[in-house]
């Protein structure tokens, strides 16, 4: 089963591009997007522990799309803000307590059958070394009932022993596209669990390590059809090896992620796909990939069982 979608949905610069402007009365951005995409990656869970009431609301708002699944980022305390010593009892207990709170927060989505994966996004400085492997082991143990995927930005994780390590933990490997600079992980096609995962970040090398108020510019990149073609091939190969394949476009600046997700979906299915009319009007790149449709209340499966 292949699901192709985007990271996040609350972007002011999507108004009039992804979303209609003016919006119809009662317009719901999440419900609207679930008609065009098979999955959405929840970003807010990276910045704070998820609120069970919000999680329940997200699940209810995609009720019209039975095959739709969320993926959700893990809270950054667990991946970025290390306790001083994970081998000390207080360090391990702090990590496990935060993991338990996250599980409780995301539970309404899992209970509703809408949770496809939990993405453990690690920073570029998270290299393959014993203390970082230990963090992964603790997280895999503390979140054992969740479908975990690990995203590494550094290329030190791209070797067979690291892949075997993830397989033992039943943690999926996130294959990414990002600028090829400073030891960054290059494009891969690894599968280490029943879930295969891809994230497309764009290739804006100049802004990649930029911080501060202009950090969003790092995702200002529009893939060409030629750049997406190798990823379409990888998606199909991963589908032969994994139970589920999730593909997330994260180059969200000015609606570029939805454009590329639709282009990739068309390439994988080999047919034009429904798309928001404003997006088709704004991007000529969608001319051969998409058909403008005002709304899509029901999103079917990308591939039926047995295909």
Question: What do these coordinates show?
Answer:
- The protein is of the alpha/beta class and 307 residues long.
- 35% of the residues lie in helices and 16% in strands.
- The chain is built from ten helices and ten strands.
- The strands form two sheets. The protein has an eight-stranded parallel β-barrel with strand order 1-2-3-4-5-6-7-8, surrounded by four helices. Strands 9-10 form a two-stranded parallel ribbon.
- Strand 4, helix 6 (130-142) and strand 5 form a beta-alpha-beta unit.
- Helix 3 (52-61) packs parallel to helix 5 (89-111).
- It is globular and about 55 Å long.
- It starts with a strand and ends in a 15-residue tail after the last strand.
- The model is unreliable at 297-307 (pLDDT under 50).
Secondary structure elements and pairings:
Elements: E1 2-7, H1 29-33, E2 39-42, H2 44-47, H3 52-61, E3 69-73, H4 76-79, H5 89-111, E4 115-121, H6 130-142, E5 148-151, H7 160-169, E6 172-177, E7 195-200, H8 225-241, E8 244-249, H9 256-269, E9 273-275, H10 277-282, E10 290-292
Parallel strand pairs: 1-2, 1-8, 2-3, 3-4, 4-5, 5-6, 6-7, 7-8, 9-10
